[in-house]
Amino acid sequence: MPASKPNSDEPSRRSRATGRVTLADVAREAGVSPITVSRALRGERAVAAELCERVQAAATALGYVPDPAARALASARSSHVAVLIPKLSNTLFVELLDALQRQLMLAGYQTLIGVTHYDPAEEEAVLRSFLAHRPAGLIVTGLDRSPAAAALIHGSGVPCVHVMELASEPGSYSVGFSQREAGRAITQHLLDSGRRRVAYVAAQLDPRTLQRGEGYEAAMQQAGLAGSVRKLLSPEPSSMALGGVLLEQTLSEAPDTDAIFFCNDDLAQGALLAALRLGVAVPERVAVVGFNNLPGSDQMLPPLTTVATPRVEIGAQAAQMLMALMRGQAVEQPHLDLGFQILKRASS
Amino acid sequence: MPASKPNSDEPSRRSRATGRVTLADVAREAGVSPITVSRALRGERAVAAELCERVQAAATALGYVPDPAARALASARSSHVAVLIPKLSNTLFVELLDALQRQLMLAGYQTLIGVTHYDPAEEEAVLRSFLAHRPAGLIVTGLDRSPAAAALIHGSGVPCVHVMELASEPGSYSVGFSQREAGRAITQHLLDSGRRRVAYVAAQLDPRTLQRGEGYEAAMQQAGLAGSVRKLLSPEPSSMALGGVLLEQTLSEAPDTDAIFFCNDDLAQGALLAALRLGVAVPERVAVVGFNNLPGSDQMLPPLTTVATPRVEIGAQAAQMLMALMRGQAVEQPHLDLGFQILKRASS
DNA sequence: CTGAAAGCGCTTACAG
DNA sequence: CTGAAAGCGCTTACAG
């Protein structure tokens, strides 16, 4: 009985007690020191098995839930993982996010989502605000960003994994696939099926979209079709409606086009529907292929040939890699290529 | 000069300093006390204008960024707002989330996203984990939840706004529209255009989907068509592919069906594409309408008649309402009906 | 309008 | 393997 606490039922006048069950409460219940409780609950260092059990029992009995704020303040590291993606309107990123978040939440991390709208200044602002929360880890989309944003990341010392593209510098980490190679492969698929006047039609024009375009050009060049390279690049955001517009534009500017590679499935889906509306025969007059295998592509008329990209796997693996880094473990494969797959359907 | 700090350049051996610029640094720079800096920066209480400026200048000069963890620990309230949504695969919720997050971030709140997968147990678990973070506010989808989840929310004392549906109990807050009334209105639209054998086809079967079905039944009953009520309810998750399957099933079970009201646009889009594939004339043989006006519905063949739902406005208004509650302000309209709109297109 | 003191609930760094 | 002390960076509750 602590004699110094004459009446513990009566809160002191200056009390700011929150009514929470704290580590100290658990310690008292278990008859050990608070530090031991802290260690037992985190599984840190060796705590005698018997004590461990007593602590667990006490924590459960009291319904103890650790306070993340106190933990963050004391350890200078929060349980947050900040995730930066360009846009929520692209199903691709939503699926990536969903996979990331699922893994991270299981391991007790909270996901903080930052949407950059493909804007370097916005990315920088979001990054600055997130870093103030001292996240335990960081996931960012792609490799290209402003020098200031890159410096913020590097200077923070927060473990960071890049997704969707593959980096190569030592000391950096990435999980993705070669956008360029995927663009090359789907173009090659069109060439293999006899198409010659292949166009590349893209919107948004983010780095990955441009890399796919490079792959397209490489395939054309390798096939001796450098002269037939046709690119229609629109800076507007990608959408089904825009896909229809760009199909019409392509066919009016270059009526002999016999295949179109759209940089994203939403454009291709819109193009397929526009073709139906306009009476353009797909794939007879023009083959159409997309990228990403988004929901609905298999339902189109005809079903859309596309590149299946492993964003769910990317999310899961990136989460695993980041968790290893946050635990201070070494990552044997810092740049993880998860590949892609050509999904041949009836539109090509 | 504090004589008790003989050599402030040399960190003590027990130092845990993080290298951060702290309130105390700003206070020293501005020549005021830390409390004054705290108040000036938060705009709390009246701080002399001149001091305020000095503090601001010092903070800017030093690049001071408040530590959210310290703030949360001291004030027992974080800058997080937890948002609970059923699924990320429904574009509806992604758009809602985007709108919410945009507003909240502008006001300095961080959004914590919890996906419940329409599972009460999962909702409860997510809630429990989020509440440990002492969020400043809470946004939850719909009104139905387990008693335990409801008790968690209520017991936490955290301000909470319900979205997508309209509550009525005093002391609760909601922003949405009447799902039932919207279901009734779109059914009435079909009846008004001469359809009689109208079916309601739904998936997922969450509360809002069932409410739309009630509206459908009410309209049928009022038209004296209670005997013609046809409901096809699938517990599977909603998708375009399922929409095609359910269309076929409806037409094979009740070939004289002259209109179908799908509970969500993805189902209706899939049905429209299946109809095209099967040679079912829409709207001649069967009219098709959807719900939510999702991306792509205007691109269908024929374009899909649907109910436009104001999720972006709901997100924005819910954020505003929650921010008022978090500031302790009174909300004059605790249940905000944002309505809906019938979007008549060619599929009906 | 401003401040000195205490405290929020944890973990780190040392010591044994 | 365990613990007493200090401290993380703020804000609350008083007092003036």
UniProtKB/TrEMBL annotation, chains A, B:
Coiled-coil-forming residues are none
Could you tell me which residue ranges the HTH lacI-type domain spans? 21-75
Keyword annotations for this protein, in alphabetical order, are:
DNA-binding, Transcription, Transcription regulation
- SUPFAM superfamilies xrefs: lambda repressor-like DNA-binding domains, Periplasmic binding protein-like I
Q: Which PANTHER family match?
A: HTH-TYPE TRANSCRIPTIONAL REGULATOR GNTR, LACI-RELATED TRANSCRIPTIONAL REPRESSOR
Please state what the protein is called.
LacI family gluconate utilization system Gnt-I transcriptional repressor
